[in-house]
Amino acid sequence: MSLLSGSYFEVYLFGNGVSLGGNFLSVSGLDMEFEYEVYCEGGSSYPRYFFKNAKPQTLVLEQGTVTSVDSVSVLINLVNLGVSVPLEGTIMLRDSFGNTMRVWTICGAHLVKYVGPSLNSNQPELAVSRIELMYNGCS
Fold first, then answer.
1. Using CA atoms, how far apart are residues 116 and 105, in angstroms rounded to an integer?
2. CA separation (Å) from 68 to 10, 20, 36, 64, 86?
3. Taking a C-beta distance cutoff of 8 angstroms, is the pair 32, 54 a contact?
């Protein structure tokens, strides 16, 4: 399947009274890593693997515009107060016509880092350069 230029990611994450929605050119970190414990029973030469836990991953949203009203500043203010609201929602890959090509569901995401645009009066810049979220899983 070939993607046309003009594709983008539509992100909508929400939590307890907070939402983060926007369109981004680049999304990375949509992977999972799991830990297993090896257990060998007496007399058996074949190990058995038991699920231990999933390792948190870093979701990175780059070069985009946030469409929900002042949501990034609300999230940053909450983190500054020592409150981290878990976010969950969807990331949709859209083609240049706005048709959905693929959807990922995110759960347990927490804001880790926000990088605003570099301010240059000679260049039009996007509203958000980078947002990093630690999250517990996707499907």
1. 25
2. 12, 6, 39, 12, 17
3. yes
Ranges 2-6, 21-25, 44-48, most confident: 21-25
Closest CA to 85 of 55, 108, 54, 58: 108
Environment class of 114 (CB within 10 Å of its CB; exposed 0-12, middle 13-18, buried 19+): middle
Alpha-carbon distance of 125 to 25, in angstroms, equals: 13
Give pLDDT tens digits for 28-78: 988 877 788 877 777 777 777 777 777 788 999 988 877 766 677 888 888
Beta strand 19-28 with 33-39 is unpaired
Closest by CA to 50, choosing from 63, 36, 61, is 36
d(CA 56, CA 82): 20
**Residue 91 identity:** I
Q: Which of 57, 73, 33 is nearest to 107 (CA)?
A: 57
H/E segment holding residue 85: none
DSSP 8-class letter at 84: -
Block residue for tokens 């231990």? 52
